[in-house]
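User: Earlier you gave me the apo prediction for this protein. Now I'd like the version with nicotinamide-adenine-dinucleotide bound, so I can compare the two side by side. Same sequence as before, with the ligand SMILES added.
Assistant: Got it. Here's the input I'm using:
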Amino acid sequence: MTTATDGRFTGTGVLVTGAASGIGRRIGERFAAEGARVVCLDRVVPHATDHLACAVVADVGDESSVAAAFDDAAATVGGLSVVVHCAGIHHLAPLTATSVEAWQRVNDVNALGTFLVTRAAGAHMIARGDGGRVVNIASMAAKQGGAHEAAYAASKAAVVALSRVAALEWGPHGITVNAVCPGYVPTEMGADSRTEEDVRRWSSLSPLGRLGTPDDVAGLVLFLASAEGAYLTGQALNVTGGMAMH
Ligand SMILES: NC(=O)c1ccc[n+]([C@@H]2O[C@H](COP(=O)([O-])OP(=O)(O)OC[C@H]3O[C@@H](n4cnc5c(N)ncnc54)[C@H](O)[C@@H]3O)[C@@H](O)[C@H]2O)c1
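And here is the structure of the complex with nicotinamide-adenine-dinucleotide:
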């Protein structure tokens, strides 16, 4: 049995954005179960906080909030070795019906938010001088688009591109930066428009015949943050049950 005091991440400072719900919450729980000191950065206060060292309320699209949140987080856990950026929002609309307002709202969280969080993570890790791991949650949509996902798919392509830039610049500092591209994971995101027929249709796109779970994504994120992930950087790794293969 794994306890909170043994595991791959014992004593490691880990910040997870979007950790109040869905995939991010599971990532935070899994790091904590392997001994990490986990900080949740989210725009809302998480319901469950037992596994957290602290919860910081901040908007990832706001420069000064992100800076203050990193200061708080680093002070609480004594330095961050791992940053997982999972906060994101979705928007579903035909391309011709996608407004500038919707485009900006989605990109402010998903693209600008990734820029601000990744930049803060790199600055913090370079100043510490002890390397680090950054994992940004993108989407299968970054690679193959998605009908009615114009703003979302474009924002997630930005996540992949930015992760590659950071990997190139920060490799000499011993910092790896990767993007993770999930397929369909039933969470709060999209729950208001998801039907049983959607679930059946999407499941059939996977050779494994099912949708993903937050644990499927968390397993890959923890691998990338662990010693076993040391030689992966600048990658955009699919966790889609084979729906995407490139
Ligand atoms: N669920 C899927 O099918 C799926 C597929 C591919 C990629 N993803 C990505 O995975 C990530 C997590 O999604 P999820 O399914 O767990 O969704 P979710 O809605 O359950 O969780 C998203 C979290 O991000 C937080 N958040 C949103 N905007 C924020 C902001 N401006 N500042 C701080 N926090 C903010 C929310 O409060 C929430 O806790 C997202 O980046 C999403 O795009 C999800």
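For your comparison, keep in mind: Residues 13-239 form a domain with the Rossmann fold fold (CATH 3.40.50.720).
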